[in-house]
Write a structure and sequence with these properties.
Length: about 150
């Protein structure tokens, strides 16, 4: 298990998982706000973390809020580099065309996934090895289910 040092404001909630085995740790708002349809807001969490070198954090939308209210994140996933020490914030957007979304301090607004990341060295070559997919993308596998 990875131990993550963190700091928190008095109103912050420590990130927790809803169920054992969940990949994401819930991030909660420390502010009250109303997000009008198609508007964006930077939502503070009051949490700052110290990720070790070789790890990154990814801030992702919560699926329940997305389907029930239309709340999503503009830059999903939001990337937290290991050398960042500032407050974790979520750039939220209300995708519901008619209803505003009310967010209260303490509400779960996003989730944080911590992942190990590779240190890569890029080497330029004349050609890449062939694969079954090659350059096919953006729907190349079709839309029909098997």
């Amino acid at each position: 298990m990875l131990t993550l040092p963190f700091t928190a404001t008095d109103s912050a909630k420590i990130p927790t998982r809803a169920y054992k085995g969940d990949a994401g740790y819930d991030l909660c708002s420390t502010a009250d706000l109303m997000l009008q349809p198609f508007k964006r807001a930077l939502i503070p969490t009051g949490i700052s973390i110290e990720l070790p070198s070789g790890y990154a954090g990814f801030v992702l939308p919560r699926s329940g809020l997305a389907i029930k209210q239309g709340l999503s994140l503009v830059n999903t996933p939001g990337l937290i580099d290991s050398n960042y020490r500032g407050e974790l914030k979520a750039i939220a957007i209300n995708l519901d065309p008619q209803k505003p979304i009310t967010i209260k301090a303490g509400d779960r607004i996003a989730q944080l996934v911590i992942m190990k990341v590779a240190d890569a060295a890029f080497t330029q070559v004349e050609h890449l090895e062939e694969s079954a997919r090659n350059s096919g993308g953006f729907g190349s596998s079709g839309v029909e289910s098997n």
